[in-house]
Amino acid sequence: MDRSDVKACKDLKDLILSNIRALYGPIFPTTHTFDIILHEHPPEFAALAIAYTDDASPNKGSFRKWKQVARGMSRGGNLHALGALWSEVQVLMREWIPGKLVEGWIDGEKRGERGRGREKRERGWGEDMG
C-alpha cells in the first residue's frame, strides 16, 4: 500500500468513526471507545467497526472485550473494504436517522430499540452486534 492509500484509509476511517459514534453511542452507553480494524482473510479483506464493551470494575476502560457493529468486505484490498464499510454505515444512517435525531433519541424511542432485531437479521451480521 502506498502513502496516498494509507492517507485515504486514515481519512475514511475518521469519517466512518464519527458516524459509528452517532449510531451506536446510545446502544453502548458505557462503551469508552469505538474503532475500525482491518483484517485480511484471503482472498477477502475486511474493515470492521467495533465497540469496546468492557466496563467491569476494576478493568473499566480496558480493551479486553469488543463487539462488531458493522462490516465492509472486499477482494480489492483494505481501502476498498473501508469503502464498503462506509457504504454500509451510510445505509444505516439513512435507516436510523430520518432527520429526527435529538441526543440519541428518535421519535421518543432510544435508537436501537425500535426495529433492531429486524435490521440485524436482514443484514446478516446481527449476532455480532449484541
Automatic annotation (TrEMBL):
<protein>
    <submittedName>
        <fullName>Uncharacterized protein</fullName>
    </submittedName>
</protein>
<feature type="region of interest" description="Disordered">
    <location>
        <begin position="108"/>
        <end position="130"/>
    </location>
</feature>
